[in-house]
Design a protein that fits this description.
The longest helix is centred in the N-terminal third of the chain and has 15 residues, at about 65-80. The protein is elongated, with a radius of gyration of 24 Å. The chain contains twelve helices and ten strands. Residues about 1-30, about 120-130 and about 305-324 have low confidence and may be disordered. Helix 1 (about 10-15) runs antiparallel to helix 3 (about 65-80), helix 10 packs antiparallel against helix 11 and helix 11 (about 240-255) crosses helix 12. It folds into three domains: about 1-90, no CATH class; about 95-220, no CATH class; about 225-310, no CATH class. The N and C termini lie far apart (about 65 Å). With about 325 residues, it is α+β, with helices and mostly antiparallel strands. The protein has helices spanning about 10-15, 50-55, 65-80, 105-115, 130-135, 155-160, 165-175, 190-195, 205-220, 230-235, 240-255, 265-280; strands at about 30-35, 40-45, 95-100, 140-145, 150-155, 180-190, 225, 280, 290-295, 300. The strands form four sheets. It has a four-stranded antiparallel β-sheet with strand order 3-6-5-4. The chain has a two-stranded antiparallel ribbon with strand order 1-2. Strands 7-8 form a two-stranded parallel sheet.
C-alpha cells in the first residue's frame, strides 16, 4: 500500500543534513513506500546515501559517515510525518559495499581480460545484458555470485558518462571517476540476515571490509592478467610440472580464442583448478608486466614474481587414453 502523501520536503531534509553536503534534486522525488507486515505497517526507504552528500555516487561514502546521514533521513521523515517510529526497529534490506581501484589505465582492456577468465564458471555470463550495459555507459562490466550477494566489477567512468547530472556536478564526478574501476557487492535481505548486517550498529569498518574482501576473492577479481610472454615466464616459475604447464598454457590459449580445450571432464576440472589456484589470466595486447587488482591498496599493481618450490612440483598425470 502506498502512502497518500509521498516525498519529503526538500528544505526539511536539507536543514537536517546541515553542512554534510548539497541537497540533490533526486530526493525531491518519491523515495519510500509503506507496506503491511502482520498487524504493523513498515516504512521502506530506498535512496543513495552518497548522492545525498555529493549529488553523484562517483565517490563512495566512508563507513563512519553512514550513521549521521541515515539519522538525518529519519529525522526528516519524522518532521514530515510525525507518527513515524524508527529507532530500534530499523532494519536494512540492501547495502552495497564498495572498493575502488585507481588509477587503472586501459580499464576496458583489463576488464575484458578478466571476463575471459576460464576458471570462473559459477555464473552463466561475465557481462551485463544490453539494457544493463546501456545503463553502465557501454563499459565492460562483470558480475559474479548469487543474486542476494552479487559481486560486480566495472568501469566507473563509463557509468558516470551517461548519468544525468547538473553540468558542474557532471564534471566533478567525471574527474573523480577517471581511470577508476569499482568493485561492488550488493547485499540483499537474505545475505544481510546471514551476515548479521541488518542494523546501524552492525556497520563497523573491520567486519565490513573483511566481508567485501571475501566476496572479491570469491569472484576471483584479483586474478593476475599477463601477456603471453609474461604468462610463459610465470608458468615456468610456478612450480608446476612440465605437463601441468603445457596443459594450462594450451587451455588458456584456447579459451582466449573462444575454443574448447578438448580435455576430458576430469582433466578440464583439474586444469581449471590449477588456473584458479595460481590466478592465471591471459590478457590480449598487454605489453606491460603482469597486473592484478590489490584489494588492500585499492590499486592496480604489478604482480609479484613467482618462485618455484619443490613442494608444488608434484607429479600430475592424466591417465585417460582418449586424450592427447
Amino acid at each position: 500500500m502506498s502512502m497518500a502523501k509521498r516525498g519529503v520536503a526538500g528544505g526539511s531534509l536539507l536543514s537536517r543534513l546541515g553542512g554534510l553536503g548539497r541537497f540533490p534534486e533526486v530526493l525531491r522525488r518519491p523515495m519510500f513506500s509503506v507496506k503491511r507486515q502482520g498487524i504493523d505497517w513498515e516504512l521502506h526507504v530506498e535512496t543513495s546515501l552518497p548522492k545525498m552528500l555529493w549529488v553523484h555516487n562517483a565517490e563512495a561514502m566512508p563507513i563512519d559517515m553512514v550513521e549521521p546521514v541515515v539519522l538525518a533521513v529519519e529525522g526528516a521523515l519524522r518532521d514530515a510525518y510525525g507518527t513515524v517510529s524508527l529507532g530500534h526497529r530499523r532494519r536494512f534490506t540492501r547495502i552495497d559495499l564498495v572498493r575502488d581501484f585507481a588509477p587503472v589505465p586501459d580499464a576496458p582492456q583489463f576488464l575484458s581480460a578478466l571476463a575471459r577468465d576460464p576458471s570462473y564458471r559459477r555464473t552463466s555470463a561475465s557481462e551485463w545484458t544490453s539494457a544493463e550495459r546501456n545503463w553502465r555507459g557501454g563499459g565492460k562490466s562483470l558480475y559474479r555470485g548469487p543474486a542476494d550477494a552479487k559481486s560486480l566489477l566495472y568501469d566507473k567512468a563509463a557509468e558516470v558518462q551517461v548519468k544525468r547530472y547538473p553540468p558542474d556536478v557532471k564534471g566533478e564526478a567525471l574527474d573523480f571517476a577517471r581511470e577508476r574501476v569499482r568493485f561492488e557487492v550488493q547485499l540483499r535481505k537474505s545475505a544481510l540476515d546471514t551476515y548479521a548486517f541488518t542494523r546501524l550498529g552492525d556497520l563497523r569498518e573491520d567486519p565490513v571490509l573483511a566481508l567485501a574482501r571475501n566476496h572479491f576473492e570469491q569472484a576471483q577479481f584479483g586474478a593476475t592478467v599477463s601477456s603471453e610472454g609474461d604468462l610463459f615466464d610465470r608458468l615456468g616459475a610456478s612450480g608446476l610440472t612440465v605437463q601441468q604447464q603445457c596443459s594450462v598454457w594450451f587451455y588458456l590459449i584456447a579459451a582466449a580464442r573462444g575454443r574448447k580445450s578438448g580435455f576430458s571432464a576430469n582433466k578440464d576440472a583439474d586444469v581449471r583448478a590449477l588456473i584458479r589456484k595460481h590466478g592465471f589470466v591471459l590478457g590480449e595486447g598487454h605489453i606491460r608486466p603482469s597486473l592484478r587488482l590489490d584489494f588492500d591498496r585499492g590499486e592496480l599493481v604489478e604482480a609479484e614474481a613467482l618462485a618455484a618450490t619443490a613442494s608444488e612440483a608434484v607429479d600430475w598425470r592424466d591417465t585417460s587414453s582418449s586424450e592427447r
